[in-house]
Structures are given as structure tokens and as C-alpha cells.
Write the C-alpha cells for this entry.
Amino acid sequence: MGLQLVPRQGGVMRDKICQLLFINTCPARRDSRLVYNLSMRFSIVIPTYNRSEKLKECLKALFDQDYPKKEYEIIVVDDGSTDNTPQLLKKMQKLSHVPLYFFLQPNQGQGVARNKGIQEAHGEIILLIGDDIIATPQLLKEHDRTHKNHPEENSACLGFITWHPKLNQTPLMEFMERGGAILGRFGGHQFAFDLLEGKETADYNFFYTSNISLKSVLLKKFKFDPWFSGYGWEDIELGYRLTRFAGLTLYYEPNAIVFHDHAMTMEDFVARMRNIGRSSRIINKKYPELNKMPSNRKQTIFRILSHPLAIKFFKLFSRNFGFYALSKKYFLEGLNEGYNENN
């Protein structure tokens, strides 16, 4: 099934298209709760794939924002889910007092899904979050305040992300969200907000699409590169491109808080580090100036650190050092996989 574009305008043609597609992407014209507001402030764009239960909680939190309901819309792009996501979205659409639109596409990756959502957005500002992100009630207010203070087209707002309080936070999860876990510099690869403490702005490496908002006009000019969508670096790549070609300033607002409702297992950790290794070769091809792929000397150091005896020693010395050594082991495995895939 291709992208299903449903016109927002009222009229017989829209109703006929809805009937032909057999999907409820068109809000009822007679339902005043869902009347589209051309002057709305925010469009919240969410890509989703086979996470209907997580998505349900995500949407509930967005419905309960301490922000005028007529001033924001929610756009969900289903990236080829095989679970009950479309049925859930129809149900949630009926329950919502906020305009909720959803679109279906074949599985093509988060970047492509976000591009579809951006294309359909009509808010002045686009807030990008994930389907496993739970917003606090003040989220839109805090993003709005930052954009009012910085109305320039190339000014964006990065909010704070942390693990959901209901999760049993393991030492691995603590390591993964502390960028300065080792000697105040080296740490996890999930989030690194500890490195932003006391800072007003962040660089493109913090272009986290779990909680970031940008002017709509900017995102419609600079979209996610589909080439990176399958590798997981589409966010960092776009952040770099916006910085380089649009002079992006990314303001950090620690009070714009969301919770990440996804416990990280060792299996997730291994997959993430291998993916980072594979992706480093991909991004290095397009942007060698970023030095995202370690030099031969650095790779040698990583091999020493990730030797089984070294890992065993580091685990005894420090839990975080042990995780760091393991991260280099799986990173190198991904690096080799990326070499084999591209040669």
C-alpha cells in the first residue's frame, strides 16, 4: 500500500476518497472538536511501527497537554505496521479533542515517515517525538516559550528526555543516558544531557528526534535524507545539514520534559552499538569532515579495550568501564559488518 494522502478540505470529494480508502484519516466535518485551524501553533509529528500499546499512551499524554486544544494537531505516520495500529488510531481519533490525523505507508524507516508527517503539517512549529515518548503536561508550553524568545526561522528547541519513572532503571540504562559516565567524557549512546548542564545551546549531535521542535518553514526546506533512514543516523545527519546550510541554533530547554517508555536490554544495547558501527561508515562517505569513523589507531585501541580479558578486568574495576569496553566490542563488529555490506 502506498502513501495514502487524504485532503483536509471539506466537501464531497474528500468523503469519496475516505470511502474508497476504507480508512478514517479524515476527521468528521460535523465534529467541532476536529475542525482544522489554519492558524494553529504546533504540529506534533510521530512515526510509528508495531507499537500500538506504546503509541496509545503517547497519544493520551498529548491529548492532556496544558495548552489550548485548538492550537495544536497530532499527525501519526504508520510505517507499515502489522499489528493493530490502524485500528487503534481510528479509535483514538474518536476520543480526541485535538485534531488527530494518520497516514499509512509501506515500511521505509523513521526518516521517510517523518517527512510524510512534515509534508502534512500546518502548524507554525513542528514538534518531533517518538511513539514511545510520554509527554509531561507542560511540554508544549515550554517549547512555545522558547520559540517566542527565539522567533528566528533557524532557531529550534531541544527538550529533556529521560527514562520513564515506571521502568526498573538498570545500571546499563543509567550508563546509556550519561554522556560523561567515564572520566566526565565517555559514556552511553542513548542521551547525554549531563553534558548540557548549564548550557543554553547544543550542537547537531544533540539533534534528538524524541523531543525537538523547529519552525515548520525550515523543516519543509530541509527534510530527512531517506538514504540514512535505514541506518538510524537520519536525525544527526539532518542536524548537521541544518547547522551547515541554515545556521541552525539549537536551544536547550530542560523544562520541556518527556519520558522514554522503552527499557533497554542488553540485546538492545548490542543491536544499537552494532548499528552505530555500521552507520559510521555510511555517514563517513557523505561527510568525511565529521570524522565519525575512527582512525586505524583508534580502532586498534578499541580492539585492545574490547579484548575479553580487558572487558573482564574493566568489569571488576568499574561497571561503567565494563559497559564502555563492551560498547567498543559491538561497535567494531558493526564497523566490520558495514565494510562487508559496502564492498
Observations:
- The chain has two domains: 12-260, 266-341.
- The first strand starts at residue 42 and ends at 48.
